[in-house]
Write a structure and sequence with these properties.
mainly alpha, 5 helices, 42% helix
């Protein structure tokens, strides 16, 4: 059984001091965290639920949450691609909630 609440608290304690907050839409956050746990069960690692994983940890290293694109996304848009991690300003409505474009280059899954 997946414990989304436990994952939420653990990640919150680690990420908030770094300036990354969970989206205030708690239902969305819990859905995304549950999907991360599903991917962990499926692949053995928590790949981004908003991207297609290859089932090869080395190929997917860049999309293991928090992905390598998060910092640049939050800096530019106030939110990561999934809207899981956001800035304080984004949550407070001080930044527009714009579409965050995909930064990951196309991957050959063959």
């Amino acid at each position: 059984m997946r414990d989304v609440g436990k994952l939420y608290e653990m990640l919150r304690r680690v990420q908030e001091p770094k300036g990354y907050y969970f989206n205030q839409d708690r239902e969305r956050v819990f859905d995304l965290l549950d999907a991360l746990l599903v991917n962990k069960e499926r692949y053995g690692y928590m790949s981004c639920p908003c991207r297609l994983a290859s089932e090869d940890k080395e190929k997917d290293r860049d999309i293991i949450c928090p992905c390598v694109y998060r910092e640049a996304d939050v800096e530019a848009y106030g939110s990561c691609y999934c809207n899981l991690y956001v800035s304080k300003e984004w949550n407070e409505g001080q930044l527009p909630h714009e579409y965050v474009p995909e930064r990951r280059p196309p991957v050959d899954y063959r």
